[in-house]
Amino acid sequence: MEDEKDQGLGAPRDPTGWKHGVAGSVRDNRRIDCWLKVTEVGIRAARFEVFASDEAQRGAAWAAQWLRGQTVEEAERLTGLAIAEATGLADASRSDALCIEDALRAALAAPLTEGG
Amino acid sequence: MPSMTPYFDYAATTPLDPRVEEAMRRASTLAGAFANPSSEHPAGRLAAAAVEHAGEQVQRCLNALDYQLTWTSGATESNNLAILGYGMAQVRRRSARRRLLVTATEHAAVLSAAEAAEGLGFAVERLPVEADGRLAPATLKAALGDDVALVSIGHVNNETGVIQPLAALAPLIKASGARFHIDAAQGAGRLPLDAAALGADLISLSAHKFYGPKGVGALVHHPAVRLAPLLHGGGQQQGLRPGTLPVSLIVGQGEALALADDEVERARQYALREALQNRLTALTGVVMNGVADGSPHVLNVAFAGVHGDALRSRLADLNVSFGSACSGQAGASHVLRAMAMPDALADAAVRFSIGRFTTMADVEFIAERVASDVGALRAISPVWREMRAGRKLSDVYGVTTLPNLA
Fold first, then answer.
1. Are residues B302 and B228 both part of a single domain?
2. Most exposed: A34, A40, B205, B359, by fewest CB within 10 Å?
3. What 3-state class would DSSP assign to B237?
């Protein structure tokens, strides 16, 4: 799922040592998962899994790129509104951006994933 | 003009068959049947004869030679005339039968007409279907009573291709004394339908569904059935549906039904549908909406782990349908909901409908494209990741009944 050209979408090949957060549900017809590789200096890699519209995919791809190299404190300040504005999401898709934010916050608060 | 990908939406509408087009062209010329068929001159009589011939073609196809026929603008009008026209006639006769039964999976033209009949004082009951989309005879029998005026059942469902067991249902309706309306828009010209054998009272047709022109349809009705007109004007069609008859369209409709698909064409379409189904189900996690012995022209499948909006965006350049092209409504299909399909899965359903001009190369093209796009969306889907890891479909989608995984 990861390769040089990818947009930061899809789960990491080996989730060991990543933080994983979930927002939304299938019942709500929208679920976004955030995966973060966090080191002492900040976020080394970010990925999103998206079961949502292509607008949500666009917002998640932007967030994955933006998060790379940010500190945890900077990542904590990223909001759904900022994602929506940066990617020009339509008003109808603002809730997708909020779901991305929720997934990010869940990942930041999550423990490291264990096992291979 | 953008280049066209193969057409897989024959359930929405069909192209005009060249033979039908030629018959219509001939009818439209000065030497043909262009005149007003109500005119009392030779040209008018020629046009009237053409209309009469087309009527016989339609009636013969349905084994309804003893029936009457009213030309309409299409199945929507035919369904409205059948339900509301019959309802109004019942009200005028002060009939005590004031219940209408419709299958929950009917086309909007039936459901909405039935709803409108509530304004005439009728109570409408939507009969639930089984998970496979069929109306169980026991369900119908339990709902029937001596207060039921009309039962409306579609021959073939427009979204799933499910064929209703009309032969098993018809005797129950007859025994109750209710009238029996069949919306045959999706099945006519594709599957045999014997009005006389079924004892059907009203049958709705739409020419553009069977390679005829758009803008014309018919309501075939038993002479014993009283109908009240919905439109008012001149005395054409015994005042039941006034307006100058569109002769070339009517000629086209008759010719189109005379060229109805035969056993060989049905077998060809079944083979194409099976080939498409096999290619798509190879993706795994594919839910069949409907039954294997449905109409040969419809394959409706849902792709688990794929988001409906995203799938629609990906497939936007393909001539496929998501739900019914006629509904024009967002949200999960009422047909799939009635079949107990969870919304998120129904939202990821695609209707592929094939027809007379579909080829195996078309099937291979569409299967390859859909496989590629479904694969791309599943690669980024947390739902699909969990299913691949062993989480059950019923658990993921929060349903107690497991959908029919192919």
1. no
2. A40
3. helix
